[in-house]
Amino acid sequence: MTTEATPGEPGELRPTGRPNARLRQSVTDMVRSLALVLGAVVVIMLITWRPSPDPVRVVDPTPVLIGARIEAGYPVLYPDALSPEWRPTSARWEITEASMPAPAWHLGFVTPADTYAQIGQSATDNQSYVTSQIGNTEPADAWQGWQRYVGPDQRALLRVDDGVTVIVSGTAEWPDLEFLATRLSPTALPTVP
């Protein structure tokens, strides 16, 4: 016995009078839509993408060095005859919180080995200046009139001459720091390429 569904019975499929657009979509339509969205994302990324700048920004320390030498009552040191592989990245002559009341000379370099080395010099008697320069280091041994300090991620050389503290420090290895310390001169000037 077969039964036919009569209008109005439950489960009967009846047209509603409105065509369902989703039933007519194909895989090709979905792929086109996805490609359109991905294309828009690519265009936005291309417009907003910026190449990473060189992380090393070289500065000319000459004006700051000359100003420091004019103002300081002692010889302000600069390393003599450095190769261009020693890139100066910072130079300051200013009173810092640690060096108060005296100004401090700061000169930072990226070394040929792509590590960091800096020179700090000040006539301050403020002990926090030394602490700010040598960081988390401990006294080690002496080297050619300098006191070595060693820490987990930093090394420092410290010397005091006629009340002027000179510190060569950084993440650079000892040979680079020692080289920098031996090149310090009261008359040297930066070479501008």
Query: What is the general shape?
Result: elongated
Poorly predicted regions are: none
User: What is the overall number of helices?
Assistant: 4
Q: SSE string, helix = H, strand = E?
A: HHEEEEHEEEEHE
Kindly describe this structure.
A hairpin with a 2-residue loop joins β7 and β8. The chain is of the alpha+beta class. Helices cover 26% and strands 27% of the residues. The radius of gyration is 35 Å and the shape is elongated. The mean pLDDT is 88. The protein has a domain of 124 residues: Phosphorylase Kinase, domain 1. The strands form 2 sheets. It has a 7-stranded antiparallel sheet, sandwiched between helices.
Give me a quick take on this structure.
With 193 residues, this protein is an alpha+beta fold.
Structural features:
about 190 residues, alpha+beta, Phosphorylase Kinase, domain 1, about 25% strand, elongated
Question: Topology of this protein?
Answer:
Blueprint: H1 27-48, H2 62-71, E1 78-79, E2 87-95, E3 103-110, E4 116-122, H3 127-134, E5 138-143, E6 146-150, E7 155-161, E8 164-170, H4 174-183, E9 184-185
Antiparallel strand pairs: 1-9, 2-3, 3-4, 4-8, 5-6, 6-7, 7-8
